Amino acid sequence: MKNTIVKILKFLVFFTLGIFIFWLIYKDQDIERIKSVLKNEVNYFWVFISLIIGLISHISRTLRWGLMIEPIGHKPRFINTFLSVMVGYLMNMALPRMGEISRCGVLSRYEKISFSKLFGTVVAERLIDVVSLLVLLMIVIIMQFGQMLRFIEKNPEISEKISSVTQSPWLIAGFVLAVVLAYLFRNTFKESAIFKRLMALLMNFKEGFVSIKNIKQKGWFWFHSVFIWLCYYLMLYVIFFAFDFTSGLNPIAGLTTFVLASFGMVAPVQGGIGAYHFMATEGLALYGVPGANGVIFAFVAHTSSTVMIILIGLISLLALPFINRRTDVKDEETTG
Questions:
Q1: pLDDT tens digit string along 50-72?
Q2: Cβ(101)–Cβ(87) under 8 Å?
Q3: Is residue 297 a part of any domain in this protein?
Q4: Helix pair angle (44-69, 193-213), 10° resolution
Q5: pTM exceeds cut of 0.90
Q6: Residue of 299, 303, 300, 281 whose CA lies nearest to 290
Q7: Which of 67, 97, 301, 336 has its CA 20 to 30 A from that of 123?
Q8: Whole domain around residue 307: which residue ranges?
């Protein structure tokens, strides 16, 4: 009961935060103009192409996850792996980071694979994604240093918040206290049941991380690792051609906007709502796109991908029991 209440509170806090940011961005916008642009000035062909690229990226992520699972002694069916990935994306709409747990739980149930081992592969996968995003950020900073400086100058609260967190006396005091307590009670903690369960869990996580080292088809693994992010980038960039006010921007402008918007997606709010819109709008502003146009672009880019994830995620939830029930029946007939 307590855990359920905590989850509900987390959902409400994150959802409220996202809606509040969304409201701040759109409260002063001309809603009638936005409706007019959406109805008459958007080339939805490019939005459709964006969704196709997005679907391809999800397939690529599925294939990469399958390569990471093989070294831990399992080769799950593609359909179950893909549907699990899409359920994970759907669950992220409900609660940030719930997707990682959900997709591992779904695949563990239908493929009979250790949840903690699967979670280890997902942790390793997310680590690769973080490194990929940071590499892209470095590329953008190097290539677009002037624009990034203007972004920080326009939003001084970003650098101020980073400085306040890293220099916070409470953070330093808390870290020192944690170290002291860990040292004083180290022997007691090592003998506890919690510590033993934690160590067992960490060993399974280790197997997940080691899966990268033991991947047989490393070439395909690294291909998908690059291809996934290329698709993510193209998914946003092709929408530039859907609007007159962004169709003339170059691919570098698309990369800058994509990287900033990606940081909005990793914010602790459901589906990046609000945070994505803010970052994408500010990214476009670096290249002279007025805020009134930037918010329309962000709305179309975010809403289209969100609707696709919700639809495919719901279909995946419905399809999983049906597909696996039929598979179980076939297995029984074969063994019988």
A1: 999 999 999 999 999 999 998 88
A2: no
A3: yes
A4: 110
A5: no
A6: 281
A7: 301
A8: 2-22+44-326
Instruction: Give the tokens for residue 218.
Output: 């490393």
- Token look-up 């980073």 returns 162
Q: Are 87 and 272 in contact (CB under 8 A)?
A: no
pLDDT by residue (tens digit) across 226-235?
999 999 999 9
Domain count, the chain: 1
Which of 34, 64, 38, 25 has its CA nearest to residue 220? 64
DSSP string, 133-156: HHHHHHHHHHHTHHHHHHHHHH-H
| Helix residue ranges per DSSP H, the chain | 2-26, 31-40, 44-69, 78-94, 98-111, 115-143, 145-154, 156-166, 169-184, 186-190, 193-213, 218-237, 251-265, 275-285, 291-335
Pairwise CA distance, residues 146 & 256, whole Å: 12
- Whether residue 273 contacts residue 26, with contact meaning beta carbons closer than 8 Å, is answered with no
* 29 within domain boundaries: no
